[in-house]
Amino acid sequence: MKDHEPMCQCANVPNVTLKFGALVNWHIGSLGKPMKAIKILERVLATIPIMFAVAIVVFFFIRLTPGDPVDIMLGRGGTVSQREIEELRQQFHLDKPLEIQLWYFLTDAVRGNLGYSYIRNRPVTDLLMERLPATIELTVGSLLISLLVALPIGVLSAVRQNSMLDRLSMAGAFLGISMPGFWLGIILILFFAVRLQWLPVQGRLSYGIPLQEITGFYVLDSLLTGNWRALENSVRHLLLPSITLGLAVAAVIARVLRSSMLEVLRSDYIKLARAKGASEWDVVMKHALRNALIPTVTVVGLQVGVLLSGNMVVETVFGWPGLGRLVVEAIFNRDFPLIQGAVMLYAITFVLTNLVVDILYTYLNPKITL
Amino acid sequence: MNRVHVILTSVLALAIWLAACAAPTPQVVEKTVVVEKPVEKIVEKTVVAERTVVVPPTPVPGRDALIVALARAPAALDPNDHRHREAETVIRNMYDGLVTRDTTSGVHLEIAESYRWLDEKTLEFKLRKGVKFHDGTEMKADDVVFTFERTIKPNAIEYPQPHTAARKGLIEPLTAIEKKDDYTVVMKFTAPWPPALQMIVHHQIVSKAYVEKVGTKGLIEKPMGTGPFKFVSAKTGLEEVVLERFDAYYGGAPTLAPVGKACVAKAVFRVIPETSTRVAALLAGEVDIITEVPAELVDTLKKVPGIQVKTVPGTRPLWMEMNVNQAPFNDVRVRQALNYAVDKDLLVKKVYNGLAKPLGGPLMPTNNFADPNLKPYPYDKTKALALLKEAGWVPGPDKMLVKDGKPFSFVIDTQEVTRSLAEALASMFRDIGIDATVRIWEYSVLRPKLLAGERQAFVGDWGDSAFDPVGHMEAKWHSYKEGSTYGRGNFSGYANARVDKLIRDGETENDVAKRKAIYYEAQKLIYDEAPAVFLVLPEAIEAALARVQNWQPASDSRVNLHDVCVK
Q1: A-chain residues within 8 Å CB-CB of B485?
Q2: What is the DSSP-derived secondary structure letter of residue B138?
């Protein structure tokens, strides 16, 4: 089977999967490992039934939740007519039996149409796609911060187990896990933005900074257009929310890395490496760290999945226009199509993150296959 | 989310103090503050030594625009197709209507030069000449007709799928609109519709030629109206909308000074959902005006030099409705007793930091048809206990009220936003021997249970931004009729045939004096039968940097930037 063949069978799947599939396919294919590429493609295609299964479950669960979208839409106050209530129900097919609603949803979804948001009256795919770059940007920012903090702390505290540094950093990690995001966020805002005025309070870009949007990723767009002012400004906006989210993630990663490093450092091949006279740096960085990274990568992968779903609290505190706020609003408004669309997106995200983690495994330990 | 908000506000108060301690000290004020928490007992007092250090905030250097922070992003920028307060705020700075409203409840002519009722179902508007759209074309009768037809005709909006405009519900009785000549339009209603002018305030005029050319999608992406500001750009999700002064503006309502083009050259609406962050952005000088300031932060903000705080009566009165079809609230004496047992002044002082008004009945005092003769039930514990005794409730050994061996206990249902109010009420009821507890719900889950009469008491509000009994009385105090909008917010199960009739009569009575008589009678009946404990009307609170001039918050929560200037 040639590399591109399975692609043709999936002409009806939404664009995102196609593009990503093609990307992975191309990348791995170029390494000359067709078997691996096929396996990856299989996994990517497997996301489609998963997505639908998840969407159908969510379809029923949100409709079982008490609360009527039309009721919520009309709010408490103002004049409302019976005609209006009935028309809204018709417009959203809420007057139809559940199985008919499900049929509409599925037939539209296979055509790539996830419906229209009740509240915003716009296509769900547009709403999700315009928020996704902000969330991905924040995810990358938080991940960078968390790795920068967690990797040295995890390694050092394992190497110097029970030292002052170990105790302090583990106490710090404990604090990082327990500290609520909104609390840390507001403290950071008040100190760095209000008091010292070093960083902006909220948003993605200051008013008055022109930026031509190409990808929707502000940092990337400012690089692409060579707009240094926008680059500096968008990075400054990214810092506080990334630190807020990143520190919590760093705490988790550092603890996992430390414990797996401790385990690895006790194993025989480390003793052997030391016996052979390898330098401490080589022992730790080449022999121990690479093996200790396997459980760490799993945890990082999970955290990336969580970060990509958007964090409502941090997005709210920093006025960051990401997915979290959109989806939480949708849940409160019982905006069924938007919730379904978001859950399908989450399903893809989690499956793909897991896939990337598995691919990383094979790189870290060639004995593992996909 | 609401719970998060409450926690965040408390964290902010603490954090402002923490951050302040860490900084250089331009000004130090030391004082003792007495904080009364209406939690368990209303008189629980804590004495806290507070140290406030403050720096006057200034706008970020080089900022050339007036920036307003809103709590939510506008839903969509189509004047005819939204039911959203933030959308209306932004839209009404770009679009004008036939009539407008001042910061309280008065209606003024805007694009219309005059109006007259041809008969009780026909309303004629003469339009002002020389009103320009932002593209330079003149606004004429065709545009007005087009706008209202786009609003009322089924499926007139084609994007993203054909549907009827969301604002049709705000002008339901309108059946047709006709052009008489280029500057005269005639509206026809199904029946006499007294609140017509108050409701037409909520409809802004779009350009026929423009909408036909660019379609709904084009109109949403690049709004174009006759208002004081032109649309410049908007960010994804309308998180930021940039406007610029329209120099050919006709000046706005002649009865609302100042008349003329807007004062600021550029205005920006920015979305900052979190209250504490909105306050922080103001303190950092990133924005000029913030909306929806919580009452508990007002004192803190007022202490900061360079910040001004303004308030205006809001439009969301609060009640505690009691299920009149269930014991113990099926006895009118019990319901009246609870009205006497509530110290509204204390609620205003402690829960709303002084920024609320006690309610004297079912309508808020700023409603144009509220009966000024109805005064809030006075706080009178003796009277409350006497009424309860008449109803058979007497103090037991532990001073808690009992009837036939059963204690008087009930649950107050409410939402997170009104938790502290409900808890304060519960403590006041416990004070006279009633065991009241509070339960927090999500409104959409609670509402069907309330309408089905399954709950005992509910603390909540109901918006009344048209300042007219229509939209309010029939929803709240008319008996509940399933499949209609009558009683859609009647959570006490209250049903009085006379009140129902009065409410329906008032809907079509055009004579103001007669209409007043009708509604006054209805209010008195409701007041006496007390299906609810009439609580308070909280104020809307906004704050701004000192450089913002001529700014006044509006009751209907619209932020009107036409008059605002910056120093």
Answers
A1: 80-82, 85
A2: B
Whether pTM > 0.90 for this model: the answer is: no
The ipTM, to two decimals, is: 0.76
Beta-carbon separation of A75 and B8 below 8 A: no
Distance from the Cα of A77 to chain B's closest Cα (Å) equals 4
SS (H, E, C) A265-310: HCCHHHHHHHHCCCCHHHHHHHHHHHHHHHHHHHHHHHHHHHHHCC
Do residues B551 and B289 make contact, with C-beta atoms less than 8 angstroms apart? yes
Decide if B96 contacts B226 (C-beta within 8 A). Answer: yes
**CA-to-CA dists, residue B437 to B257, B408, B413, B422, B424, angstroms:** 50, 11, 9, 9, 10
Say if residues B264 and B66 touch (Cβ distance below 8 Å): yes
| Nearest Cβ partner for A318 among B19, B277, B489 | B277
- Chain B contact set for A334 (CB, 8 A): 444
Q: Which of the residues A68, A122, A186, A338 would you substitute to probe the B interface, choosing the one with the greatest number of B C-beta atoms within 10 Å?
A: A186
Q: Is B148 helix (H, G, I), strand (E, B) or coil?
A: helix
Contact of B53 with B28, CB cutoff 8 Å: yes
User: pLDDT tens-digit profile of A152-166?
Assistant: 999 999 988 888 889
In sequence order, what are the residues at sequence separation of 6 or more whose Cβ sits closer than 8 angstroms to the Cβ of residue A135? A307, A308, A309, A310, A322, A323, A324
Six-digit token string for B284? 């950092």
Indicate if the pLDDT at residue A21 is higher than 60: no
List CB contacts (< 8 A) between A121 and chain B: 75-76, 81, 160, 163, 166
Neighbouring C-beta atoms of residue B119, cutoff 10 Å: 9
- Using DSSP's 3-state secondary structure scheme, residue B145 falls into helix
